[in-house]
Amino acid sequence: MARILVNNSGPLHGEVEISGAKNSVLPLLAATLMTEDICEIEDVPDLADVSVMKKMLRKYGAEIDDSVHGIIRTRTPEIVTFEGDRDLVTEMRASLFTMGPMLARCGRIVMPMPGGCTIGKRPIDLHLKGFRALGAKVTEDAEKGTVTVEAGPEGLSGDAIYLDFPSVGATENILMAAVLAKGTTIIENAAKEPEIIDLANLLNKMGARIKSAGTDMIRIEGVESLSGCIHQAIPDRIETGTFMLAAAITRGDVLIKNALPGHVRPIIAKLKECNVDIDIAPEGIYVDARDKELVATDIKTLPFPGFPTDIQSPFMAFLTTVKGQSVVRETVFENRFMHVVELNRMGADIQIENREAIVPGGRKLHGAKVRATDLRAGAAMVLAGLVASGTTEISEIYHIERGYEDFVGKFKALGADIMKIDD
Ligand code: UD1
Fold this sequence. Notes:
Number of helices: 14
Oligomer: single chain
Bound molecules: uridine-diphosphate-N-acetylglucosamine
């Protein structure tokens, strides 16, 4: 099994270029299923999850040209199957993003139940609630482990849909399904993440009529058909946050290029509370944690524009190194503290009480054999390894490769003592 080895590296220094956002690119690629025309998505990161999505699209009948690095061109003249591929869906939960587009384009999709990171139950009830509101019939087959969603003979029709929680995936799936529905759809309590705006921008370029994406009430006027377009994905705000924390935990200074400050405001605010200097420069976000006494702060994860759950574990690794005790509260996912066991193996001594982690600061972490229990937990282990004494050996790194482009290479370029071992 491949592993990452990290040694205590001293302060990181230099520049890092942020890639296109994984969580944008996956739904953007899924949306290209909604037209027969050519679509071109730019700034696509080279990630395992993107490969899964390309395979998924090909199964549905897409022709894909990915010969130019960072650019994916798709054309789907005809949909050849209504069934999502079980292996691919099991491999990646974001395969679910093909449900809305398939329903919109063909009025039918049979989907095996999804896989992905093991961070809580992650149901899809809100996606299905939205499809039902648009007039689709939803049939669950527990024996086969599939969900079939079918529009009636008249197709989908717009309606008001209230989401009980502003789920990112449900908002995206319903948005895509509603674009080709008859009449007006309103998604209330919609997710406001930047990736939703990116998807709406792509769909509007394709001919959709979506208003107010990025607010909690999205309005969609259905259109007859969509056409092709060229679209550049937004930069990855979670990768941005991860490198901000890499500078902070190592007490280094790093210029993070191709980052959008507006997408990482809570991370900037919280790092500032800890005494880290952050400068928004024209060329990027400059994080400087040299020669400072850094102090504790509390974190509560929330939907955007609150503190992102995906940065909770990397931030927790950082908090083990500052002065004072911090409390980290996870409100988005119910089981997203699996990294605590791993950080504790490195000497963190974090206690969990319900959905709160009590993080004592000032710990001297030591290297250990740890697991990347999910994608972001894997990043947290690398950050901890950079400041731990000795060597940290991280297994199950396929999680990291799902979501971070050239992770080891980017860290090495900042002076980290890190390597990947394939055996
Ligand atoms: C997306 C991101 C993920 C991020 C998460 C929250 C992608 C590919 N992944 O995941 O990195 O951590 O947003 O910012 O974009 N829920 C329900 N019913 C549903 C759907 C969700 O109860 O039908 C719950 C989930 O169990 C969870 C919460 O809503 O507790 C948030 O999930 P959601 O926003 O849907 O996350 P994802 O779209 O899966």
